[in-house]
DNA sequence: TATTTTTATACCCATTCGGGTATATATTTA
DNA sequence: TAAATATATACCCGAATGGGTATAAAAATA
């Protein structure tokens, strides 16, 4: 199954910083292919690689409750 | 302050349900070795496998903010 | 329209995850 | 104490990740 908006979150954050996938790849240190697979919603990615990207945005992976309406992006 | 690490979270949740690693392995469908590596804090795990475990607790992986110096911790 | 930029697929392949299993080391219980 | 249970560590190995690269397609720009 798709990975809970994580892909959309990354894409939105990247766009908000006006970065291309190539630039995000360079800045985060992960491969370009990884950035693309991440934004496309691949679910078998490695935790450390995802965190490497999220760290640029000031985020990291953590356990969040299901059921709760997290459809709203509270980036305010 | 660190937001309860994923490995500690899993272990705490498992203990609260009075499950052994073997039982968690069976119920979640991941291998026993994976459960142990997860609770030991291995960072190169796969997203889908971690989510397979978290789902049992009603959680899943998501992007959470770093540098949360506010005191509104909902940690048990 | 044409050009440029960005993103999507496909391929090769070294690295390594993750399952299973066995053994060793706690930890708990009688 | 011993016995039972739980957890940690180590090994083999198939399968898949992720990097790099090339090409195609799409989107943006003039």
Outline of the structure:
The first copy, chain A, has 76 residues and is mostly helical. Chain A is 46% helix and 9% strand.
Which descriptors apply to this entry?
homodimer, 4 helices, 76 residues, DNA-binding, 9% strand, mainly alpha
Count of helical stretches of chain A: 4
Order of helices and strands of chain A: HHHHE
Q: What fraction strand of chain A?
A: 5-15%
Share in helix of chain A = 40-55%
Rg of chain A, nearest Å: 12 Å
- Which quaternary structure do these chains form? homodimer
CATH secondary-structure class of the domain at 6-57 in chain A: Mainly Alpha
Secondary-structure class of chain A? mainly alpha
Average pLDDT score of chain A: 87
| Greatest contact between two chains | A-B, 28 and 25 residues
Largest β-sheet summary of chain A: none
Annotated CATH homologous superfamily of the domain at 6-57 in chain A: lambda repressor-like DNA-binding domains
Low-confidence stretches of chain A: 69-76
CATH topology title of the domain at 6-57 in chain A: 434 Repressor (Amino-terminal Domain)
> Could you tell me the number of beta strands of chain A?
1
What is the second-level CATH architecture of the domain at 6-57 in chain A?
Orthogonal Bundle
> Gap between N and C termini of chain A, in Å?
28 Å
Overall geometry of chain A = globular
């Amino acid at each position: 199954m798709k990975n809970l908006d994580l892909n959309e979150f990354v894409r939105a954050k990247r766009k908000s910083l006006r970065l291309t996938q190539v630039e995000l790849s360079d800045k985060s240190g992960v491969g370009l292919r990884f950035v693309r697979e991440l934004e496309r919603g691949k679910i078998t990615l490695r935790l450390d690689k995802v965190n490497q990207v999220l760290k640029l945005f000031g985020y990291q992976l953590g356990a969040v409750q299901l059921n709760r309406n997290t459809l709203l992006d509270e980036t305010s």
